[in-house]
Fold:
Amino acid sequence: MVVLQKNHDCSAELREVSLKATPIRIGVLSLLEETTSPIDIATILKELKKKKIVADPATVFRIMNSFVEKNLVREIHFREDKTRYELASKDDHHHLLCQECGAIEDISDCHIEGLEKEIITKKHFLIKSHSLEFFGICKNCQK
Amino acid sequence: MVVLQKNHDCSAELREVSLKATPIRIGVLSLLEETTSPIDIATILKELKKKKIVADPATVFRIMNSFVEKNLVREIHFREDKTRYELASKDDHHHLLCQECGAIEDISDCHIEGLEKEIITKKHFLIKSHSLEFFGICKNCQK
DNA sequence: TAATATATGCAAGTAACTTGCATTTATGGT
DNA sequence: ACCATAAATGCAAGTTACTTGCATATATTA
Structure:
């Protein structure tokens, strides 16, 4: 009898980019799939522990670096001293960061294609990626 | 005879925000006025030394924090582990960061007002500030 | 010019991240 | 199913950016 494995997709996804499908990597990748807002390494370690996956911080740092290199995830830098990560497969979208409660909301369809074209033609700069983040006060915290 | 002091403006600017006009602060502020692209603390320290101003890193960190608090400068976070600073008096503008040579070019007139309005009405998020950075290859490095 | 609030330097501390090396493990070939 | 091997992991030590506490020094104000 064949048992459908949880995270089967993750393993396949990992092998596709020639990374070994280890428990920690599968755990990180499926965690990112479950998570809506970009998370940092400390949070990743905590969430893994909840799933009974214990990992060394250094290992997760290395994993995240390899994921970035393989374009599985992208780095997000808010005005913090730590890096956050989210799945690169998510559409081009950006974030609203509440400076009061720390909530992170997504926004999509940022219409900066016009600006990008302008940059390409005027500055002859080849754009590989961009980051657009908004800082302010969320709906809840305005009350 | 009255000798016109260099950096007289900087001193005034500092007192306006009730910060004492010390040599290091004046040095940092006038350095930022001379500099076109956002700079980090290590660079600030080097440049100050050229001007015969020796300062402790901790002091400059504290100075930068107070400048940010007083809205004299703003923080810029590229995909680095360090913070850069630029004068807040500079117009709303953004940066093109070359991933090859590290050159930083400014762009102005980013037309994201439309997007901002959309965020305010749809998400009821009160925008205080935003950051928009482009990463890619500059004109020179494309050759 | 003296009083005082504030700035600075120094040293120690913290947090995020990296690196070297010995051990373990996933995987491809048999 | 097993073995060989390249790659992944854990641990410890190191690095870098940044912070903090405290004693000393200095800019401002009266």
Remarks:
- Chain A touches chain B at residues 75, 77-79, 96, 98-99, 105, 107, 110-112, 114-116, 119, 123-139, 142 (CB under 8 Å).
- Chain A has two domains: 1-90, 91-143.
- Residues 19-20, 22, 24-25, 55-56, 58-59, 62-63, 81 of chain A lie near DNA strand D (CB under 10 Å from a C1').
- The longest strand of chain A covers residues 126-137.
